[in-house]
Design brief:
By secondary structure, the chain is an alpha+beta fold. Helices cover 30% and strands 21% of the residues. The strands form eight sheets. Strands 7, 8, 9, 10, 11 and 12 form a six-stranded antiparallel beta sheet that branches. It has a six-stranded mixed beta sheet with strand order 16-17-18-22-23-27, sandwiched between helices. Strands 3-21-20-26 form a four-stranded mixed beta sheet. Helix 11 (324-333) links the parallel strand 17 (312-316) and strand 18. The N and C termini lie far apart (60 Å).
Length: 506
């Protein structure tokens, strides 16, 4: 119980509004791909820099592209719900001088990494030397590692950019198991018109058995009201989309927890009556992805099916390598589909190279999804068409929780005219990043490039604007409808009726 309580307290600190920038995902000790990787890459130099050649899905070169486009506050709920085995950190019991030295070393590492690796040598107009002067005394005054992480996150917040984050060791799960150890209540939520509304309840879950339904409003989680949770983020300077996602993730972290424990939810039902529901948490289904360098295991969800009219539907919750073959196989199996809908709602991103790899299964010619600009040089996300790509209509579903690789994939295919984007404007957090490890055991995520679409549009801070904007409403959820999916289906049918689909591979 003490360990679980410590983890919850640390998770609260991770998601606290003192972090002025969305925490971002862990990565690895990274070196940019060189021309030695592939002879085709060696020949692809232009005046504007070296173009990064992404090979077809599943090949070794894609595995070497380890840039992470993933927002750390958006770590999958399955990860934060895991039973924790805290990584040993520097504690107050250690000699005072040693504690101070290690924390000072962590501060120096973070500050110097930004100074040396940030893609903009002017730091967006921020005086980084002055930031050091401002935060060095605060670091010297901290009494614990967690206080240190809060100060470091606030320092990174001075950049006002995504993908700069500190992830405490207690929030990292890695016991080598493929099976998730954490538990969930079997529901998901979104902030709609300022209310925490259940947008999905898993069939056969404990939440469903307890009578919870999509469209119910969550007012209270155990003894914590949603107003209190929202209030924690009142002073945040983050974008509304990032703030909404942080609030929902914080709430879900409280709803989910150790299997065979319970959570007490106070909800407003379909008749606008307030009632209390006890839900037992159950072990999460599915698998965990393997560790990749400093990028920890992630809870994976994947769904593939046919909708009415022969339309294919593919949904996955995160861009991690083990899902690549499943996505490719699903697209191949839908060669005769009227159209394909790829649902990236709530998907926070992941491995950037997967965007080009998946796009190769949907495109007949070599194209680019955009390019990232580093402090020196530029690299394009080149799409190489695969054998017999699917060339029918494609719609991509997005919302305010779609970030990073989801945005790169959606924006790139939208601009080259290969897919239509349906739903709500995305988060606007799309900086290529990698992860390092601090001497305290925490992970440090930092961006090393910006990203622009094929037309030179910056996604960071702006997001992807859908071709067809459709808001999710409580009324629709209570009626059992998904207006965003309905709009995508309608769009596919319209495109199919106007022109005959080009046969795959032509």
């Amino acid at each position: 119980m003490k360990r679980a309580r410590r983890f919850h307290e640390n998770l609260t600190r991770i998601l606290a509004p003192t972090q002025l920038v969305p925490p971002l995902r862990r990565g690895i000790n990274f070196n940019l791909p060189s021309n030695k990787m592939n002879p085709r890459a060696r020949s692809r130099r232009t005046e504007s820099g070296t173009h990064l050649s992404i090979l077809p899905i599943g090949e070794a070169q894609l595995k070497k592209l380890t840039l992470i486009f993933l927002v750390a506050t958006l770590l999958s709920v399955g990860v934060v719900a895991q039973t924790q085995t805290p990584t040993p950190t520097v504690t107050a019991a250690a000699p005072a001088a040693a504690v101070s030295n290690v924390r000072q070393e962590a501060f120096e590492m973070v500050w110097n990494t930004v100074r040396e690796k940030h893609f903009d040598p002017d730091f967006g107009g921020v005086d980084w030397d002055k930031v050091r002067e401002q935060y060095a005394p605060k670091v010297a005054a901290v009494k614990s590692d967690n206080e240190l992480y809060i100060v470091l996150q606030a320092m990174l917040g001075e950049l006002h950019q995504s993908h700069f984050s500190i992830i405490p060791p207690e929030a990292i799960v890695d016991d080598g198991s493929k099976e998730p150890k954490g538990g969930g209540a079997g529901l998901d939520i979104r902030l709609i018109d300022g209310e925490a509304i259940i947008n999905h309840v898993e069939s056969g879950s404990k939440a469903s058995a307890a009578g919870l339904r999509a469209g119910f409003i969550i007012k209270k989680i155990d003894d914590t009201t949603m107003d209190q949770i929202v209030g924690r983020f009142a002073q945040s300077t983050e974008s509304p989309a990032i703030k909404r996602t942080r609030i929902t993730r914080f709430a879900l972290a409280k709803i989910n927890g150790k299997p065979e424990t319970t959570v007490r939810l106070t909800v407003t039902d379909e008749s606008d009556r307030t009632r209390e529901v006890i839900v037992e948490r159950e072990k999460l289904k599915g698998e965990m992805s393997p560790r990749f360098g400093n990028f920890p295991p992630q809870y994976m969800e994947f769904e593939s099916k046919r909708l009415a009219g022969g339309i294919g539907y593919i949904r996955f919750n995160i861009f991690v390598m083990p899902l690549m073959e499943k996505i490719r196989a699903a697209i191949r199996s839908m060669s005769d589909a009227t159209g394909i809908i790829i649902d990236l709602r709530g998907n926070p991103g992941g491995f950037g190279g997967m965007a080009s790899g998946i796009a190769g299964a949907l495109e007949a010619k070599q194209v680019s999804l955009g390019a990232m600009k580093l402090r020196s040089g530029r690299q394009a996300f080149i799409v190489f068409p695969q054998t017999n790509p699917y060339l029918g209509p494609v719609a991509i579903l997005v919302d305010g929780g779609s970030a990073s690789t989801s945005e790169i994939f959606a924006a790139g295919l939208q601009e080259i005219g290969r897919a239509s984007v349906v739903g709500e404007q995305t988060m606007g957090a799309a900086l290529p990043s990698i992860f390092g490890k601090l001497p305290t055991g925490a992970l440090f995520q930092y961006a090393i490039a910006d990203f622009k679409t094929p037309n030179g549009v910056l996604i960071e801070g702006l997001g992807v604007k859908p071709n067809i904007e459709v808001k999710l409403t409580r009324r629709a959820l209570l009626e059992g409808r998904d207006p965003q999916l309905d709009a995508a289906v309608s769009l596919i049918n319209q495109k199919h009726s106007k022109q005959e689909r080009v046969p795959a591979g032509r």
